Amino acid sequence: MSKELIRLANCTMAFDGEVVLNNIELSINDKEFLTLLGPSGCGKTTTLRIIGGFQRPTSGDVFFDGARINDIPPHRRNVNTVFQKYALFTHLDVFENVAFGLRMQKPAIGKAELVSRVLEMLEIVSLRGFERRETASLSGGQQQRVAIARALVLRPKVLLLDEPLGALDLRLRKDMQNELKRIQQAMDITFVYVTHDQEEALAMSDSVVVMDGGEILQIGTPEDIYNEPENAFVADFIGESNIVDGVMTADGSVEIFGRRFACLDGGFAPNEPVDVVIRPEDIDIVALGDGMLTGTVTNVTFKGVHYDIIVDFKGFKWLIQTTDLSPVGARIGIKIDPDGIHIMKKSRYSGLFGDYSSYSAEYDEISDAAAVPAGTAQEADS
């Protein structure tokens, strides 16, 4: 069982009376790669700064390895930070940038140990041979790895990373996602990573913390967050989602657009209104006569591996991701297996996400209610 390393207990943070973190509870395990994920202003960077000691919570406690550290300054915590702006010393070469923290340590370490530790870090970040390079001559990804080596050479138990890939181009960001995970596993320490990019969170993390409005909405593995979102915000923020109103007619049966669909969820009150999330890749296009629902294609975008197809179902636009092309204006049926339907409780986010109308604004709107005769679509088994 993993050992808890960091715990934020009932932490609230307010600036000039405005609450930016609202009584959050968070536990981070030793040697875990945990990502704080959410939109700008959600409180994720504030959470990171509280862990690092750069800010003290207005109320609540921060524990490190079982000891309360609210009053411990950043330089006395066994934590180091890599920011989006790497702040490398341009007048020093790569070796001296990495060695800087070691030279500042008291008591001082011997020259042989300093050289050994710097070269060890450069090996881990794949920069051996770059020791005497000027930092200005390095690529963005190489500069980032120097900043990481400079932080790790002090052997912290936790590395905090505040959107470190934000300044890199798309291809380099993807490469660095793999590098960061490799480095974390090689060092065998805890990484706490801040991002607003859900793909980064899913690709690298052991655990994902989804935040909004200064609150933690859900904590789980990438698979849990993606497949079992707890509300419409989480479902929309993590990947693409069709989120529609439904009614739970019974355990294992949900009604959408007047049609019953089999699902795997239960535990709701009879006829309880719910939010229904269906991922675009979980929808199969079938012949009209075989469709659980029928609709009209209003927009098609080629994405290389698949098509993004927008379909109008009674005025609500759904996104379907498929390798089979259905042209604009085509009438199609859809089929959804029970494991492709996830039921969520109604929340303050209900009705705000999941409609892809904006994708098809350039096309003439087609009223599906008028286009589909009653009873055309087949009803799913309940």
Structure description:
By secondary structure, this protein is α+β, with helices and mostly antiparallel strands. The protein folds into two domains: 4-227, Rossmann fold (3-Layer(aba) Sandwich), CATH 3.40.50; 241-371, Beta Barrel (OB fold (Dihydrolipoamide Acetyltransferase, E2P)), CATH 2.40.50. It contains nine helices and 20 strands. It has helices at residues 44-52, 94-104, 111-124, 140-152, 170-187, 198-204, 222-227, 232-237, 368-371, and strands spanning 4-15, 18-29, 33-37, 59-64, 67-68, 79-82, 158-162, 190-195, 207-212, 215-220, 242-250, 253-256, 259-262, 272-278, 283-286, 293-302, 307-313, 316-322, 331-336, 342-344. The strands form four sheets. Strands 6-7-8-3-9-10 form a six-stranded mixed sheet, with helices on both faces. The longest helix has 18 residues, at 170-187. The model is unreliable at 360-382 (pLDDT under 50).
